[in-house]
Amino acid sequence: MSAPSIPFNRPAIVGKELDYIQDAIERRQLSGDGYYTEQCQAWINRTTGSLASLLTHSCTAALEMAVILADVGPGDEVIMPSYTFVSTANAVVLRGGIPVFIDIRKDTLNMDENLVEAAITPKTKAIMTVHYAGVGSEMAALQRIADAHGLILIEDAAQALGSTYEDKSLGSLGHLAAVSFHETKNITCGEGGALLINDPAMIERAEIIREKGTNRKRFFRGQVDKYTWVDIGSSFLPGELNAAFLFGQLEKVADVTATRLADWNRYYETFAAYQIEGLRLPVVPTNCEHNGHLFYLLLPTETDRAEFIAHMKANGIMSPFHYVPLHSSPGGQRFARVHGSMALTDSLSERLVRLPLYFTLGQDVERVIEVASDFIAKLSSSQLS
Ligand SMILES: Cc1ncc(COP(=O)(O)O)c(C=O)c1O
């Protein structure tokens, strides 16, 4: 089968990535925590206003570290949406904890903050919210609930670098946050991530967990005369080549975001013109600014979605659906539990389809619009008939 002419995602060189990789090699440190890791972490702290950050080899790793830092142990519960990537839940299950899924909001598809309190039990340790499509969860309400019940608030900000909630960067609002630099994200180094730490009491332990449970960082800073095993941990850090590539991308975040937002807005204006029952576009609350990470359509039915995907594919355009809700997966049924109805998660997830969106999409955005509009116009005439 030939490759699609317009893929869903295409990674690109956007700045000095290759120069920085060359420079990292000349600096003769390819293992982690060298010059470029420091540059990336300083950039993240400066740009997001987070207290501290640690690069990791994935967002999955950062989530696993966050759950260790939240002291989640066997039988402890963590409230989260089911409409998320498997890593949000797996991080909890790996500690013997139980993900407790609640339904999402109809507008943003983020966890519904109004359902959190009823799901809290004496076993609840943390709340993990996901900023779907880089659009902020209702953080003020979540912070209030976490404070009132003494819970740790974790942001799964995998998709949300560069987005804000009430003018504050996503990732800087929970005790902890995890971002992703996977190839599909706005800013990438192939596989990569970062843990953002906003509670000063957690910084030193985070450094230890990331360095296989040793106090190696303190040793390098000259604070102890030898390093040793002091806590649980793993090897969560990336090598310098990835960090060097990542720094080249981070420096260009403004260009990347502006380009993606221009295409996102072009999609939005086009499809907003259709008045079709059951067709819906993304909603961005007025207190949020997003980073143009993902553009989706909600089609009237699951069958419409399957037909839309087939139509796009027949025209050489990849247009995938997104998460299969975790509560309906074999892993979710085995390791997690549900609190309350999942009606919105079920119905919205089966109608959602994503359109291609990447830095070098360029004029192909018009081709995607043309092919998608063909399908939507037919939907419209079938509703009239
Ligand atoms: C919400 C969410 N969390 C976590 C991840 C995992 O990110 P990574 O691939 O960097 O481990 C993803 C990946 O797409 C995601 O969408």
3D architecture notes:
The chain folds into two domains: 17-250, Type I PLP-dependent aspartate aminotransferase-like (Major domain) (Aspartate Aminotransferase, domain 2, 3-Layer(aba) Sandwich); 253-380, Aspartate Aminotransferase, domain 1 (Alpha-Beta Complex), CATH 3.90.1150. With 385 residues, it is α/β, with parallel strands linked by helices. The strands form three sheets. An eight-stranded mixed sheet has the order 1-9-8-5-4-2-3-12, with helices on both faces. A three-stranded antiparallel sheet has the order 7-6-10, with no helix packed on it. The chain has helices spanning 17-26, 35-48, 59-69, 86-93, 116-119, 139-149, 203-210, 216-220, 240-250, 253-272, 302-314, 330-335, 343-349, 364-384; strands at 52-56, 77-81, 98-102, 124-130, 152-156, 164-165, 168-169, 176-180, 193-197, 288-289, 296-298, 337-338, 352-354. The structure holds pyridoxal-5'-phosphate (PLP). Pyridoxal-5'-phosphate binds at residues 58-60, 84-85, 87-88, 130, 156, 158-159, 180, 182, 193.
